[in-house]
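I had to read the description of the data format several times before I understood it. Each protein is reduced to its one-letter sequence and a matching series of backbone shape codes. The format is easy to grasp once an entry is in front of the reader. For illustration, here is how one protein appears when written out as sequence plus structure tokens:
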Amino acid sequence: MHKLLLFLTLLMPSFVFSQSFQGNIQDNTSEPLIGVHVINLSNQAHSHSDDDGDFSLSEVALGDTILFSYIGFLNKKMVVNSLSDAKKIILMPDFVSLDEVVIAPGIEPMQAISEIDLKLAPINSSQDFLQKIPGLFIGQHAGGGKAEQIFLRGFDLDHGTNINITADGMPVNMVSHAHGQGYADLHFLIPELVDKIDFGKGPYHANKGNFTTAGYVDFQTKEKLASSLIRAEVGQFNSKRILSAVSLLDNANQDAYFAAEYLTSDGPFESPQNFKRFNAQASFTQKINKLDKIRFTASHFTSEWDASGQVPVRAIESGLISRFGAIDDTEGGNTSRTNLMLRYDKNIDSKSFLKTTAYYSMYDFELYSNFTFFLNDPVNGDQIRQKENRTIMGLNTEYNRSFSTPTMDGLIQAGLGLRNDESMDNELSRTLNRKETLEQTQLGDVYETNLEAYVGAQLNFGQWAIHPAIRFDHFYFQYTDALAQEYSRASVEQSIVSPKLNFYYNPSKNLQFFLQTGKGFHSNDTRVVVAEAEQKTLPAAYGSDLGFTWKPSQKWMVNTALWYLHLEEEFVYVGDEGIVEPSGQTERKGVDLSVRYQPIDWLYWNADVTYAHARSTEEETGFNFIPLAPNFTFVSGLSIIHPSGISGSIQVRSLHDRPANEDNSIVADGYTLVDLNLNYDWKKIQFGIDVQNVFNAEWKEAQFATESRLQDEPNSVEEIHFTPGAPFFAKGGITYRF
């Protein structure tokens, strides 16, 4: 790999034949604009501005016309009359518009759609983060403090088993977690600090490793605040939230801010959730010189809650409890996470740069659950405790070098990374009323290290772009069993190679066809790896997407794809029993459709429709359903940002019925919900109201086919157990910016 990279790097300068067009792009307040699309309309060569607003475009001749396009700003065209001096480009703010979405070889338009969706309907709660991804649904079933259950592309992802989630380059997924492999808790993010959401579906991106099968999501927080703000919210069910975000430094070389939020809620349940969460984040950015900068970020969150758990349908139908009642209301937990991150951006020369991120995280988790009530212990009940104390340390660095030849231009990327997890006293115990420990089922220390390396290229020539890449991952698993009669420390090592190859073809400036192919993987739990050597440790996922992105006019945009994904091994992690159940090979196939339409400047319509067919390939027909795999989803809405200061949206989201067990004899009910928000800006103040479940639909937010026994029952029953979705819920908020 090293020799290949060196060869390509040395070869590039000998082919350079044309001059470059360079400059800096700013807004009307002299702030640099990051990620502006820069396109030579004469030959479709393109580039984008970096974190300092600087850009360099190759293959430019006198008389060429350059287009500058950026979401939320007026497009600008410039005829090149000089190549000797760097240009200063000023873009003026404008309505968020589909006009600014560019379709060009190597550019992924869905990223632009994500930016538009985020600007038109800003995130106002932690649960909104993931729902910005087209086709992704979530469910909460433990009092608000537990990570959300995630559904995407025919997967019940549980809490993150097959989706790679990061924040500012730091991993969110927890390997070998006490409550399940890949557990991803995003509650440490403050909504108002999220700047961009980068996402991709399928295993096609070399810089995304473990858990990247259904896709990945990377959240990027703001380096600076547009203004300081104070926000207060009050809603039903004793819900309250207060936020303060203050800009501390804002000058040419330094940016710094501090933000903190505190929120509480009892929820609609008869037994109050007593949910409390505190978040804080500080950020400091220093320009070392005109080209290089360093950013330090520190964040902390702590949360505690009670929960009513998942209730059986029969208990409600018999009148034993109400819809928002509980069989065991002693569930709940507490968790906290402290993150330290350091990022260094180093420009080597006009064509190459390095991005390096180091992170350290301290994490605590304790969860009490009872899913089967009195099935296993008719006297004390089946409550369990899952607990761990974890530290995560890591470093990743990526080298980027752009180049041009007489026949093409492109980018070489190469990266290295190291991540180490130490989960101490990783525990599963049987408990009583969150007070007494009856039996320790599992207790031990998990050590897991992942070394990664990748190299790839973006090769653009004419109407075509090809992105070849290859990735290498090496894992070291180690587990010390504290319950073994004799001292026991077992370890296993394993590696996997993941090639990727993506094609893009643009027959016109408004149409792009794409074919994405690649291999990904998801790792198994360390405790299973060291105990059962015959189990697959790093089963592969093979996927492909075939589709197109089309702008039939400047006001319309359509993105669709046919996709296929094959898993060598499906893992069903039963965290409540501390085991992983391998369920053999599976395949999923489907179609995704996203449509965006902007009939007038201040009105925007979105629609996302997905269909997935998910089946086990090693079971006979009729018994090969994958439990809780979503098969049909639909999201649509209207958003407005009016010059009068009025903004808001109305959204419909629908999840269809789906099988809850392997033979589809038990069905998880679908639902359709309508949400509404409305805001009014007056000078420096914004007034807002947010209404969820406008029509007060009765729906099941999280559902499982579970065998349980109630205290009075002679025999167990397997049926749907569910957490009831929130009824009509309204909250109001006021924000003051200064």
In short: The chain has two domains: 2-94, 183-737. The longest strand covers residues 436-461. The longest helix spans residues 109-120. Confidence is low (pLDDT under 50) at residues 1-17.
